[in-house]
Amino acid sequence: MKQNFDVKGMTCSACSAHVERAVSALGVDSVSVNLLGNSMTVEFDETKISQKDIIAAVKKGGYSASVKGEKKQTETKSDNPFKNMKTRLISSFAFLIPLFYLSMGHMMGLPIPSFLEGEENSLVFALVQFFLTLPVILINRSYFINGFKSLKNGAPNMDTLIALGSSAAAVYSIYSLFSMAFFLGRGDVVSAHSKFMDLYFESAAMILTLITLGKFLESRSKEKTTDAIRALQNLSPDTATILIDGEEKTIPAADIKVGDILVVRAGEKIPADGYLTEGTTEIDESAITGESLLIEKIKNNKITAATVCRAGYFLMKAEKVGEDTTFSKIIRLVEEASSSKAPIARLADKVSGVFVPVVILISVLTVIIWLLTGATVSFALSCGIAVLVVSCPCALGLATPTAIMVGTGKGAENGILIRSAEALETVSKAKVVVLDKTGTVTNGTPVPTDVVSAKGYSEEQLLTIAASVEKPSEHILAKAIVAFAKDKGISPLSTENFSAEAGMGISADISGKSVIAGNARMCAHYGIDISELEPLAKEVSENGKTPLFFCENKKLVGFIALADTERASSKNAIEEWKKIGTEVILLTGDNKNTAEAIASKVGIEKVISGVFPADKEKEIRALQAEGKKVVMIGDGINDAPALARADIGIAIGAGTDVALEASDIVLIRNDLSDAVKAMKLSKAVIKNIKENLFWAFFYNTLGIPLAAGVFFPAFGLTLSPMFAAAAMSLSSVFVVTNALRLKFWKSN
User: Fold this and answer.
1) CB-side neighbour CA atoms (13 Å) of 201
2) DSSP secondary-structure letter at 26?
């Protein structure tokens, strides 16, 4: 069973790593925790482990969890992290600004109240700072509650570092305040004044306020990473108009049932999947396919939920509703992909698991070493606090999920549905793209390309005979000929005695004449001479077309050649793949002539033809055996094994449900160029992740030694706790902001 959970209380990647360890200890099949979305996906055997066991394990680790989708009555406005953080930030600055002015203003020559001036008023000055710091600590008490609770549970996190750093500054300042009172009580003004210089109240308050500022900016940026998903969700209408006994009634969209007749007017969003039963319309399908052009719909045409009626009034019958609609599946795919983890994130996860304990150890060692070298307690403590505060597990934890969430959302906007972060990463490494022919490189629908009449017959006569004899047939070639004749304004004649002969063709009586249609074998079977047009028929056959001969009273009337034409976008897509160094292979069950004819038109150099459906998977496996990362693109049931075997399976949107389920990436539109876009988007996302990880590791690698005072003896460089807090906050904001650049990604 696979279940999604909401997890609350996580503040950094150390938290998510701890939650993963706690749940993994239960013996689940897999667990993935997403820090950005505060969510967790768990696969487990429900006969051995229950949802309650998983929730209990998370709770024992110091966090809370609930099954995704369950609404709790206890939720209040305080559960909104953005609004909560904004309130805390404003309140903190209200006390920090006067505190900072009093503690630093006199150093800058700024005036301060007279009752705070002079050594004799130093204790009053210290008490004022203390009482301005105390509200900031109370406002941001969640850092201390969560931080020390996590420390008690043996899973220290970012809050622990903040709590320890600000506590150390505050406790040492309180100690100095009592020491001042002690010395002043004995008339030792000089000693009291020396302790006055050891006050760090403003540092404690500044650390908490700047971290809150960083969290505020971070949460604001996080909101933007989910814009694509929210935009998709907002496309779904809340209500629908249903037709009951000839009367219209407005109901919640969630109450629509399969078989209901829905009324849709211009400007309204379509609430379910189904087909048009009455009227005509023009539909804006850009939300689903990314296609900006309006699509005309007539009776029996398919209609998709969340698309928009731009013109006309029509009735439709609901076939798929609620979670079963194409639109709901798209949202579900995007959400699952956004919350999944890419293999590249594993290094960050490993580091995050031990990061905070190591930082605490470095901080303690920093204080001890500086004291042993003769530094003052004030300097040693300042370095130790700076180490705690500058370290940023947040940047490590956000580096991957932010880019994944923005990238998958961007893909959805372009009609590219990426099922997982692993697929997003793997497709960027692919060096071979294997294409099915029918419905992938080609349109999947044969059309007449050549109409050649025999001596004594006109093209119109040939098409009339062809349309008449083919009309009763259900064969795909027959339908193509009838449709072609109709477009030419030719109406078929009535037929009698229609019969079909498997593997050869059909026959019927038309206006008292015996007519046959089929391949060369059919003509030979009836002893009909086709030598007049046989060389030309052979030529079109060698070009990948299928000639059908038509005869009247055992006399050749002519032939019509049909071919499954290549998609308009196929050639450009293949050229783009070649530009980025990707090998393209055509894999098809068609004969060699047909396959090579299509391949030459679109620029494919390697063709594997005559392959049975069961053997397509073997061909993919053979390519993988050569050490190549293989992408397979197809649309049919016969492609499903190959799609599943490939490193990445990409299904064309019009494909079967089986092909879609077997694939890692789904292209909503029937456009091969979107597969190229998917690869380019993947490369852009992975590049962004690498940039984020580099910054996160570089920042901590440089920041921690600088804060510890490693560069102080040689260069006189160190980092005050206040600047350390600002740097920590900005590092997280930088990572999220860098990921947001993907919102402006374009394929060209």
Assistant:
1) 30
2) T
- Tens of pLDDT along 42-65? 889 888 899 999 999 988 877 888
Element (H, E) at 608: strand 606-608
Closest CA to 580 of 747, 426, 431, 440: 431
- How many CA atoms does the CB half-sphere of 70 hold within 13 Å? 12
H-only helix segments in 37-140: 51-60, 81-105, 122-139
Per the CB < 8 A criterion, the answer to whether 490 and 525 are in contact is: no
> Looking at 436, 635, 664, 671, which residue is catalytic?
436
Judge whether 436 counts as a catalytic residue: yes
Residues of the chain with CATH 2.70.150.10: 257-320
What global pTM score does this model have?
A: 0.69
Which helix or strand (DSSP H or E) is residue 111 part of?
A: none
| Per-residue pLDDT tens over the stretch 146-193 | 888 888 887 787 788 888 888 888 888 898 889 888 888 888 877 887
CATH fold for domain 415-441+567-679: Rossmann fold (3.40.50)
CATH class of 445-565: alpha beta
Residues of the chain with CATH 3.30.70.100: 2-75
**Does the structural domain 2-75 have CATH classification 3.30.70.100?**
yes
**Tally of CB atoms within 10 A around 182:** 13
The Cα–Cα gap between 701 and 695 comes to: 10
CA-angle at 742, arms to 740 and 744, nearest 5° = 100
CATH 3.10.180.10 is right for the domain spanning 257-320: no
